[in-house]
Amino acid sequence: MGTTSTGQPAAEPAAAKLTVRCTFCQTWNRVDARRAADRPKCGNCAKPILLDRPLPLDDETFTRTVEASGVPVLVDFYADWCGPCKVMAPHVDELASRYQGRALVAKLNTDRAPVTAERFQIRGIPTTIVFKDGRSVAQLTGAVRLPELESLLARAGVATGAAP
């Protein structure tokens, strides 16, 4: 923590919070995004909340997760049977690992979440949308590699490259 021009200690920046559902017990948890790499634990079952990989979303969890996030959320809309989605999956996984704490990376299976897929008029998969403050700010349709995914996050104000 630094000091201000008056010599007073500078206030710490407000922590960006994530609201995510535990994949094990389904309990909602608030997590400090800056501590994502510390492998936070669920407040109910104490199992790890794994933010270094894409968070699975569905019709029930999508809105709350995206709207309550203090960091941009990149969502990969995909289907298990989709060949291009399978080609892109390792890049989405790498993005989640590289950007944990700076962005939340999630996946939504359009076959299992038709209400959300229709809400965002997903007509082709894979489609990737970045949300900031609950609103869509960048979108791509088609399989892309890591640099294109990073450029989508950059359009939402996320610094590219390795975490500081």
Automatic annotation (TrEMBL):
Signal peptide start-end: none
Keyword Transport belongs to the record: yes
Keywords, A to Z? Disulfide bond, Electron transport, Metal-binding, Redox-active center, Transport
- A GO term from the CC aspect: cytoplasm
**PROSITE patterns assigned to the protein according to its UniProt record, in alphabetical order:** THIOREDOXIN_1, THIOREDOXIN_2
Every Thioredoxin domain range: 51-158
Q: Which Pfam families match?
A: Thioredoxin, Zn_ribbon_Thio2
Output one GO MF annotation. protein-disulfide reductase activity
Q: Does the keyword Amino-acid biosynthesis apply?
A: no
Which InterPro entries does the UniProt record give? Answer: Thio2_N (IPR049299), Thioredoxin (IPR005746), Thioredoxin-like_sf (IPR036249), Thioredoxin_CS (IPR017937), Thioredoxin_domain (IPR013766)
Concerning its family, UniProt says: Belongs to the thioredoxin family.
What is this protein called in UniProt?
A: Thioredoxin
